[in-house]
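Data card: per-record layout.
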Amino acid sequence: MALSVQLQTGTLTLHLDPPLSSYQADDLFGFAQRRNPKRAFLFVSKVLGRHIPVAPSRMRAVMDALAARIPADLPGPIVVIGMAETAISLGAGVQQALSRTRPDSLYLCTTRHPLPAPISLEFKEEHSHATQQVLHYPQALAHQQLLQEARSLVLVDDEASTGQTFANLVTALQDQGKDQFERIIVTTLTDWSAGQAAARLGSRATQVALLAGQWQWQANQAPPLEMPAVDVVGTGAWQARCAHDWGRLGVQTHTLPVNAEQLGVQPHEHVLVLGTGEFVWPPFLLAESLEQMGISVDFSATTRSPIALGHSIQRSYALQDNYGQGIANFLYNVDPSVYDRIFLCTETPAALLDADLLAALQATVVEFYP
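The structure for this 370-residue chain is written out next.
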């Protein structure tokens, strides 16, 4: 099956493999024009709550479906690594699903907001708008031991096109002496690499996805769109606290640090819960908790990913990042008029949030760690 879409700077053509799951292409993603000359197109996920608001139950279903494709016989312990920023929630959800039967699993996420703890390794995501990523090792002794003894590594991202980012991460792990893994599972919603993302990691690696295929990009004569300066790694004006970690330093169980009932949402209200940047997993758990109370809820998040209007991106807000890095952030496809209440969730102090965005959304700030 072939799909083709005309973007501002060229044509993207997809050749889809026979279905790997019940999910079809239209279930998982749409398309948009990146403001990034290194890769001009974007698969806009419909199920990750990043660029398109989505019901938490739909997000949870895709996390569970992807986790179900991971082999059940992996030797343990298992380390799951989610890739910032898009796959932080996806990786956490995959690990949480695995933990129902595998209590020997640990979740870590990469980050562009290092904590006041030693940076264990750095690696690159060459095609990204923000190429630098870092990974912390756990600080808790039990988690350190689990990482030291881990025999399986599950790498989670929204898609794989070449597998270069995964290869860069594994090489960095090897350089740090973390090369004891007997099995490596490349885990993505979509695999555009024709299996090469796993193949380049060697015979111990296998690949699982909900959808697979290949893409071809044919540029036209239009000049590439200007990309804002968002390739920044660091702490900015604010630095996360190790005591409030939700994944950057490793977790085995996931907890919601706020009480959904205290928000005072009424049963008839339609609510939007927004994460900010990398801080998406605890806000997702909040959105899910509200949904389980019978509330109509959507979830989405701000991002540093610069995308042009058109196709799957119909609305856009530009805002200042709330980590004090002095870079542009964005919010896509949010129409405030369709929600009774909007909760903007933050791990940073509320004073660092963009005041113009708060006014435009008429949002209520939820500080998770006041």
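Known properties of this structure: The chain has eight helices and 17 strands. Residues 76 and 151 are 5 Å apart (CA to CA).

See the next section for split statistics.
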